[in-house]
Design a protein that fits this description.
alpha/beta; Rossmann fold; four-stranded parallel sheet; two-stranded antiparallel sheet; 6 helices; 20% strand; globular
Length: 132
């Protein structure tokens, strides 16, 4: 069974994931870093060049592979669970935990990524912030 961390950029998925994996004696995998290593291309480049569809296809492949493994702590990319098939795969592979970040103060490390990879934010008085 995997532990999957999701949330908007800057929510602390990698920080929390690393700590939890260490505490549980599990392997931690950052999905975006794994994708970058597999295809040798930084994630923001896909968005800067208008190749979001290619990125999402590769992202789906990454999570299909990781969902087949067990005992992982996985930090997903900010939009990974927007694809219903990817979301279902990850949900079947373990427990999905959503992390939140204060709005509008993302971490300094995520600001450049957020500029390159736009995430739509809507704020509902009843539901709070929702990232799509």
């Amino acid at each position: 069974m995997n532990l999957i961390l999701c949330g908007p950029p800057g929510a602390g998925k990698s920080t929390v994931g690393t700590a939890v994996a260490r505490e549980l004696g599990r392997e931690f995998i950052d999905g975006d870093q794994w994708l970058e290593a597999r295809w040798g291309r930084p994630v923001p480049d896909y968005f800067a060049s208008g190749e979001q569809a290619l990125f999402r296809a590769r992202e789906a492949q990454v999570y299909a592979i990781l969902a087949e493994r067990g005992g992982l702590v996985i930090a997903t990319g900010g939009g990974a669970l927007l694809d219903p098939r990817t979301r279902a795969r990850l949900e079947r592979s373990g427990v999905v935990v959503g992390l939140t970040a204060p709005v509008p103060v993302p971490s300094a490390s995520s600001r450049s990524t957020m500029r390159a990879m736009p995430v739509a934010l809507s704020v509902s008085p009843s539901k709070g912030p929702e990232f799509t």
